[in-house]
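Design request, tokens follow.
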């Protein structure tokens, strides 16, 4: 799932681009589709004028997977490396490892488990407040979600 959260009136608005990724259990590689979702989110974030971009990466591993700590670390590093390749500064990428319990799991209609092990949130880094962006006509209307 991919989302853009921007609300107006200008007194209170927030810019956030999120990407949620599901990987096959016990793997760390990003698929072509995963990379495309990340790339699309970064392209939208790069439209924010005159700001750096911050990325918060939740690198999770589900309790049903093997070697949770290793998976979390590798998944975080894979995403961080790709974000750097897309132009996000390393100093602005924060990776948080998370052990995912059954509360993170949904079941597909076929009964298979679905776990989004990676979440990426992109936000602008502004000097002082980002409130000036709320009235910037270059940002309205905001881009629609690319993966509802």
């Amino acid at each position: 799932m991919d989302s853009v959260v921007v609300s107006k009136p200008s007194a209170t608005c927030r810019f956030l681009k999120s990407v949620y990724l599901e990987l096959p259990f016990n793997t760390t590689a990003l698929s072509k589709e995963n990379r495309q979702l990340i790339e699309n989110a970064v392209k939208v974030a790069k439209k924010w004028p005159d700001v750096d971009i911050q990325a918060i990466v939740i690198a999770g591993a589900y309790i049903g997977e093997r070697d949770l700590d290793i998976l979390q670390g590798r998944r975080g590093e894979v995403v961080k490396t790709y974000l750097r390749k897309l132009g996000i500064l390393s100093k602005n990428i924060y990776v948080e490892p998370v052990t995912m319990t059954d509360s993170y799991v949904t079941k597909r209609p076929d009964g298979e488990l679905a776990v989004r092990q990676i979440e990426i949130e992109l936000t602008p880094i502004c000097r002082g407040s980002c409130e000036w962006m709320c009235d910037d006509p270059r940002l309205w209307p905001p881009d629609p979600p690319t993966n509802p």
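Comment from the thread starter after seeing the answer: thanks! The helical segments are 32-45, 68-85.
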